[in-house]
Amino acid sequence: MDDELKALGDAIAVALGGAVSRTYIEYGELNVVVDAAQIIEALTALRDNPACLFNCIIDITAVDYPAREHRFDVVYHLLSPRHNTRVRVKAAVVEDEAIASVIPVFPAANWFEREIWDLFGIPFTDHPDLRRILTDYGFEGHPLRKDFPMTGFVEVRYDDAQKRVVNEPVRLTQEFRSFDFLSPWEGDTPFALPGDEKAGKGRIANSE
Question: Which CATH code, of 3.40.50.300, 3.30.450.40, 3.40.50.720, 3.30.460.80, is assigned to 2-136?
């Protein structure tokens, strides 16, 4: 199987020319890394070339690598029903850098790209309707970025007094609590808290 995938990877590298920076096999699947600026040409060739015929798009997603210069990978999963083979295509983009929409090649990419824009903040040029698809109107930030806070910025709750759902900034009362020596959570207090004398006796008795 790996030999067949390697031969397919070599054929794809030839078919796509300079658009491919490398091909490799990982977990039994062929991966093709392409230049983001040539994503339209690359996917068109993968769809139309007789050696490929990857004419079914399964999914488009993204991966966030905050420490990298090219922070995001936009990842396309394609299927060739003719050859019964899958391929994963990756294109690296810089934060806030746009990548071309592949809707002209695969119309089904529409909602996938909207989801990536919503959750990762990666813009797609020439997308016919690039707006959020999973988060609410007026949502701030992009939840699948690794620097997005786990708590988010806004909390949604039902207000019984107003008899409606309200959006308000997250209030982390517990996180910003100001501890002092009177708090039993501090541990090393200069006095015995109620009940500590029993624990002390227990330790002494056990040590004897």
Answer: 3.30.460.80
